[in-house]
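Example record

One chain of 727 residues, shown exactly as stored in the release files.
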Amino acid sequence: MSEKSIHLPIIFHFHQPVDNSPWVLENAYKKSYDPLIDNIFKFPDVKITLHFSGYLLEWLLDNKHEFIEKLKTMIKRGQIEIIGGGYYEPIFAMIPYRDRIAQIKKLSDLIKSEFDLDVKAAWLPERVWEPNYPSFLYDAGLKYVIVDDNHFRSAGITEEETLYSYVTEDEGKTLRVFAINEELRYLTPWKPTYYSIDYLKKLADENVDRIVLLMSDAEKVGVWGTTHQICYVEGQGHDEGDNGKPFIPAFLEQIRSNSWIKSITLTEYMEKFPARGLMYLPTASYDRMEVWSLQTQIRKNFKKIKKTMKADETKKETYQFLKGGFWRYFFVKYPESNNMHKKMLYVRNKLIYTEENLLKIQDDNIISIILNKINNAWDEIYKAQSNDSYWHGLFGGVYLQFLRFSVYTHLINAEKLIDTINALINPNLTSYIYITPIDFNKNSKTEYIIESDIYNLYIDPNDGGTLFELDYKPKSYNLLNTMTRWPEAYHESKKLEIYEVLVDRFRRSMFRLRFLQDDVTIEQFQSDKYYEFGNFVNGDFKVTSSEKEGKIAILEMEKVGSVKDTDTDNRIPVRITKDIYVEDNEIEIIVRINFEEISGQEEILKRIIKYLNIAIDIPFFFNGDTINYNKFQWESNQLELNGDEGRDLLEPFQYEGTHFKAYDESYDISVEFDISSDLDSVKIYKFPIIAYVYTDEGYRKIYQGINVSPLFKFEKSFEFHLKLKTF
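Predicted structure tokens for this chain:
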């Protein structure tokens, strides 16, 4: 009878988002990356598989030579395997086939050139899997992949059956697939090492191909909470069983001292054992991601159902098939995420069109210059595909404004390279402006994009005739990188004071019109808790004209709607037009409002005119220093502001005036607007957009932009002009 044993491959995943702050990388290196590799280095008989995302690996190669040399030594002695994946850590489901192959090849090539290793596997960011994955992974030259055991449960596979490897295929192209063990993942490093050893002992048996795969984020063993002390500081490990010995060396020692635990890499395992059989996996991610992707109200209900079923032993078999949403739904849940994704697709399509135009060029020198710029543009697009900014769960994700800023910066950089290429192909295109109708959001409705060598304006007539992206190209800066304060399931936590949580009813886009009572305070307006009397705020505007006249692009929209009486449910018809003009660095919007006079309803119209205001939203985003916001300043030529406190952009403020100017010192960029109208006075409300977000650091208030709203009293018919400049 064979001795009971278990194979234990261990994988550590090292990742940092593109453009994360250098101090964050240094902190992670000090707390986790360096001590983790140092400890692994001391146990040459323990086999480990490592994954580094390309952005982080570049940083390590440039800055941590001793660390890299340790990796090379361990490779020479056959101790470690390094696997690849998408260079900038994209969710493969969100990018086209060509980009999937290019990102994988870019990271595989770097690993080959630096470590002389052939990459055999791809790391799947957030373990997102879709059934077509085997074919492109096979095409990229890979042999195996790692997924959660949650994926197997979704296919009806028992826990016992996840202790083996399988083959899956797509288009006849095969790939070995391994399941990460959930139980072991949750034990390490939170429990003393004997918990993990006892669990492994329970699973060990005479089947020589049985395997339990342990996967951990490197940041989980050193960066999260107190894990640095637990994992590496003598005397601060778990007292029970480990006597305070740090978890990582204690765990590695346990593996070495228990001969029935077979330390192995997955490539070695594949060379020794065939797969158990054929397997097909459904679209899946890890279980918590599938909860996070659900709509907020559905997520609340799902969590209650899941908690109840998990606690009920009689529902155990049914619980296996309880499944949440899937990753792509974040594009529906968060319009801001969809905005970034669809812009990425839009820019890459422009780049592909530019590539096709190369056929017109005969000069080899110009072709060489253009090819270099095309390669650089592709790399900018790949950087914008980094997954971290596109979703929200335990980590801030889409709510982390600097991650969104990074996406837009790289995409605008790519557009500027495309502009340069087009100017080389056609010298008359150094200065241009045009307007394009397009289903940008991919929702079967038409948006309009005004593009020039200075600005990109993305306009949605179907959402109140609003502007939802405003790129100032000289600075590669999206001034509408604002994030709406969306309601989240965790906002109902008893740990929160409900008055602190502000949510929005509508996306924080520019030129949104609101009808509200004239006594609405800035606090009520900021919290979006006023009563809306009009139906223009998110209504459909009809585009009546879109044209270019010389260097000016013009978009004209109108909507015939109504405004409710302040005392009754009666409504008065209103026609509103919005005309947007773009020339050089100036944007002008002209709003005309005309009430219809109806016989017998004169008093209603009088009340509306007497008691209501109309407001227009002008949100904008400054990136600046995300630690120190005192580099944001503002002023008005109609006000005398005292000291730095009065000029603090993030402080709520209201005043009578028609002028506003703000400045981001870090990026040396200014936004300024002037209002002209027939009205005697305009009231202006200014306040920060702050989202209340739950992250791995607990509840946080995260800055998402600034909102400035002029409020107008009005007549039966009136208009106002607003001129916006960026410089």
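Notes: The chain has a mean pLDDT of 95.
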